[in-house]
Amino acid sequence: MAPRNAAPRAPRTRAHDAVTSSTRAKRRASQVGTLLQYWRDVRGMSQLALAIEADVSPRHLSFVETGRAKPSREMVLHLATALDVPLREQNGLLLAAGYAPVFRESRLDAPELHTVRMALDAILAKQEPYPAVVMNRTWDIVTSNAAATRFFGHLLGDAAVPSPPNVVRMMFDPAALRPFVSNWETVAESLVRRVHREAVGGVADEATAALLADVLAYPGVPDRWSLSDPDAPLVPIIPVSFAKDGRAYTFFSAVTTLGTPQDVTLQELRIECFFPMNAETELNIHALMSATAAERADRDQSAT
Question: Strands 247-256 and 141-144: what pairing?
Answer without folding.
Answer: unpaired
